[in-house]
Automatic annotation (TrEMBL):
Residues 3-121 form the VOC domain. This is VOC family protein. It comes from the Bacteria. Transmembrane segments: none annotated. It holds the Pfam family Glyoxalase_6. Coiled coil: none annotated. InterPro entries: Glyas_Bleomycin-R_OHBP_Dase, Glyoxalase_6, VOC_core.
């Protein structure tokens, strides 16, 4: 059986991206970052193969692809508050016209242009 261990995001500025994702998710560095690689873990994760997906940041030198073929969905009980918090951390709103009228997500991108959605989990409990 497979499970997701690490999601790798390509970045240009590893320090800036690491600062953003540690603050956004409350993750911590697994070890000392190198100049082109760092793995971020949930703070409770005691070993690399313990449950809980990690996020790795990798400097590749390749430009971001648009539209990206993969993105993160981040679940939020208070979507508006989380979007505001993430924007204050350096996320940017994505000018995207594909939202249906009943969309329960907002598309943002991190400091490196990696897109992610903030999904309103409170909307699912009301249905």
């Amino acid at each position: 059986m497979l499970s997701i261990g690490t999601i790798v995001l390509t970045v240009e500025d590893i320090a800036r991206a690491g600062e953003f994702w540690r603050a956004a998710l409350g993750y911590v560095n697994r070890g000392e970052p190198s100049g082109d690689w760092v793995i971020l873990d949930p703070p409770y994760k005691e070993h690399w193969d313990a449950p809980g997906a990690s996020v790795a940041l990798s400097v590749t030198g390749y430009p971001q692809a648009y539209p990206p073929r993969i993105h993160l969905d981040l679940y939020a009980d208070d979507q508006a508050a989380e979007v505001t918090r993430l924007l204050a951390l350096g996320a940017r709103e994505v000018d995207w016209h594909g939202y249906p009228e009943d969309a329960d997500w907002v598309v943002l991108e991190d400091t490196e242009g990696n897109r992610f959605c903030v999904v309103d989990t409170a909307a699912d409990t009301a249905a």
